[in-house]
Write a structure and sequence with these properties.
21 helices; 425 residues; mainly alpha; Proton glutamate symport protein
């Protein structure tokens, strides 16, 4: 291979053009505006909502094309079942571990101890919408909702699992008819170019969305609300940090990559998730980055979308920690049997919680409602700070699924480890 010594090296991108720098500046401006002009800042919620809507608009075609073309190139369809099986083993193991860690920390730190809140003094109307939404959050409803009403409706709805289901079916069909379906496969490969170009364009709007979302959050809830429940918020952030650095760090070390280098590699996406409180906002970009990192398209296409419903580490930590906090604050002692019951229910109810703001709150309401006599209205205690915890939930979920994809790709020998080292290095 010849190297042109006269060719000028590519100029590095100016620091101010880096997405994470722009998002950071937008967050700072949003916080400042929200603090000093709260009334005006609340109206800026539309900017954050608009950006998330734009990203969600492109998620379905990104997942469909990635999964369908990935499966279409596979001659051995047994590998699809193998990848999915290994992914679910990983998801079940670490989701359960997250629930256990949240429960252990809540019992050791006891952030709600001493608050002595009388549940009767709390306004049940404040959480009624979440309680009503939780009634539909059953395992049966979740399973039935995986199958869309029609083939095309999955691409126009907002269920990632429906898109994934149709994409897998379509990809398997393409794989079994590769010769006759070649024009369709070629078309999907060509369609991927403009779709990912749209993603690239939308990411340029990320700072505007981050600014609007953060200005609204601070303007609506204020910074002072954090101090009222600083114990819970601090405990949750510490537990999530411990899970990412120690637990996921150990997983990364065992699989021969560094968790801190990975976090640096996806920093643009992390700041985007932080600003919008939605891990979905960075889904298209991280899928593209994971392929660049050396993970095969098939593994990325199967693991990332599935993980958004089945591998929610941050949500799981939050659920057991928040459940015990409410019990402690309302002087409702839980026996180990009741705590184990909460753990088992949470293992089921947390599956299918979308990676968007508020989903963890609805899932918590669905879990606590099952425990006889539990003061469910105590959820109102954390309503004010839930928005500040949703950022941490989304970040932990996002990091957990990124690590899971690399690990499953390695297990399947579908990881280019030289490319992984080069990109992370």
């Amino acid at each position: 291979m010849e190297i042109d010594l006269n060719q000028a090296p590519a100029k590095p991108k100016p620091w101010y053009k880096a997405l994470y720098i722009q998002v950071l500046v937008a967050i700072a401006i949003g916080i400042t505006l929200g603090h000093f002009h709260p009334v005006f800042s609340i109206e800026l919620k539309v900017l954050g909502d608009l950006f998330i809507s734009l990203v969600k608009m492109i998620i379905a075609p990104v997942i469909f094309i990635t999964v369908a073309t990935g499966l279409a190139s596979m001659s051995n369809l047994k590998a699809v079942g193998r990848v999915t099986g290994k992914a679910f083993i990983y998801f079940l193991t670490f989701s359960t571990l997250a629930l256990i860690i949240g429960m252990i920390v809540a019992n050791v730190v006891q952030p709600g101890n001493g608050m002595n809140i009388d549940p009767k003094t709390l306004d049940p109307k404040a959480i009624q919408d979440y309680v009503d939404a939780s009634k539909d959050h059953t395992l049966t409803h979740f399973i039935l909702d995986i199958v869309p009403k029609s083939l095309m409706s999955s691409l126009t709805g907002d269920s990632i699992l429906q898109v994934l289901f149709v994409a897998i079916m379509f990809g398997v069909g393409l794989s079994m008819t590769q010769e006759k379906s070649k024009p369709v496969i070629d078309f999907l490969h060509a369609l991927a170019h403009p779709i990912f170009k749209i993603v690239e364009i939308l990411m340029k709007l990320a700072p505007i969305g981050a600014f609007g979302a953060m200005a609204f959050t601070v303007g609506k809830y204020g910074l002072g609300v954090l101090w009222n429940l600083a114990g819970l918020v601090g405990t949750f952030y510490f537990t999530a940090f411990f899970f990412v650095v120690v637990i996921l760090g150990a997983v990364a070390w065992y699989n021969k990559f560094n968790i801190f280098k990975l976090l640096r590699y996806i920093k643009d996406e992390l700041f985007l998730v932080l600003a919008t409180s939605s891990s979905e906002s960075a889904l298209p970009n991280v899928m593209k980055k994971l392929e660049k990192l050396g993970c095969s398209k098939q593994v990325v296409g199967l693991v990332i979308p599935t993980g958004y419903s089945f591998n929610l580490d941050g949500t799981n930590i939050y659920m057991t920690l928040a459940a015990l906090f409410i019990a402690q604050a309302c002087n409702f002692p839980l026996s180990w049997e009741q705590q184990l019951m909460i753990l088992l229910i949470a293992m089921l109810s947390s599956k299918g919680a979308a990676g968007v703001t508020g989903a963890g709150f609805i899932t918590l309401a669905a879990t606590l409602a099952v425990v006889k006599g539990f003061p469910v209205q105590g959820i109102a205690l954390i309503l004010g700070v839930d928005k500040f915890m949703s950022e941490c939930r989304a970040l932990t979920n996002f990091i957990g699924n990124t690590v899971a994809t690399i690990v499953v790709a390695k297990w399947e020998n579908q990881l280019d480890e030289e490319k992984l080292k080069k990109e992370l290095g």
